[in-house]
Design brief:
This is Deoxyadenosine/deoxycytidine kinase. By secondary structure, the chain is an alpha/beta fold. It has helices at residues 13-24, 39-44, 46-74, 91-104, 110-124, 140-150, 160-176, 196-216, and strands at 2-7, 27-29, 85-88, 132-137, 182-186. It is globular and about 45 Å long. Bound molecules: adenosine-5'-triphosphate.
Length: 218
Amino acid sequence: MHIAITGNIGAGKTTLAAQLATYYGWDVLYEAVEGNPYLADFYDDMPRWAFNLQVYFLNSRFDQVRKIREIRKAHRHVNNYTHAVIQDRTIYEDAAIFARNLRESGSMTERDYETYQTLFENMKSLVRPPDLMIYLRADLPKLRAQIRKRGRLFEQSISDEYLNSLNRLYDEFSAAYREGPLLVLDVNELDYAGRPDDFAEVVRQIDERLVALAGKGN
Ligand SMILES: Nc1ncnc2c1ncn2[C@@H]1O[C@H](COP(=O)(O)OP(=O)(O)OP(=O)(O)O)[C@@H](O)[C@H]1O
């Protein structure tokens, strides 16, 4: 089974992915930030590095798709619901949210965007959607607080406008998402890292979805 966590910068995807992996004993695939050769430059000069970064992310996300396929294959002998791989952000978000936002804000040229979209559509035809998508929805103050707390230097210059635009596209994306089951968690008041009851509530909601999926025989 493949579970994906989606959400804006600082929404808490990585933390939740790690907690779920420990709790259920599942595999997890993180979005690697260390070693990304474009990210810091991108935040410094988006028009210059937008296309480079998007191609980099598309490739690394596609590589994850391949790994997920391998993990699923390795566990095919066990019940589909006793093993899962959790993915921290999906290929869909790169295209529908980040690249689109760069085009709309003028940081990516029309021809670069079209080249990118063609590449994405080709890759998408080979991608199987997750069995469950979990969308962590957070408003600006929560995102800001988490970005500050995490303290990555190059992320401190991210503007409110950038985060708000991404949030608008995230909401549109989740409202239009028809690829499979979607669980929306409002994380503004939720503190699953600090409060065991909050984490238990998240687990309860996920379990509910897993039971429904198992009932459908997916
Ligand atoms: N397609 C993309 N285009 C531009 N920036 C991206 C893209 N995908 C990821 N990023 C950036 O890469 C970094 C990824 O960081 P990280 O994996 O910690 O995730 P995050 O979005 O901060 O999530 P969270 O705090 O929810 O774990 C962030 O700065 C994020 O905005």
